[in-house]
UniProtKB/TrEMBL annotation:
Keywords: Membrane, Transmembrane, Transmembrane helix. The chain crosses the membrane at residues 27-44. This is Uncharacterized protein.
């Protein structure tokens, strides 16, 4: 009789342990999925931000180059300035 009670008690403890273990596993799976998804989003946003900054810098360089090219003297003006006229 005592052995049956011990076995039932062990089975109850084992099933309780398994239940708690499943809950903990589900919690940690959810936590890690949430954490790594947030980390991934932060990483992607950072990459996009850096790419956007590069694009803006490149556009501003191109604008300054364009304005510099427009402000260059023509070949006739360069020749006359070299000749001192």
């Amino acid at each position: 009789m005592n052995e049956k009670k011990i076995l039932l008690n062990e089975n109850a403890l084992l099933s309780r342990y398994k239940s708690l273990r499943n809950k903990a596993d589900r919690f940690f799976h959810f936590f890690f999925l949430f954490f790594f998804s947030k980390l991934f989003v932060i990483f992607v946003r950072g990459k996009l931000h850096v790419e956007n900054e590069r694009h803006v810098r490149l556009q501003s360089r191109m604008k300054t180059l364009d304005s510099g090219i427009k402000n260059l003297p023509s070949s006739a003006e360069r020749t006359s300035s070299r000749l001192g006229k």
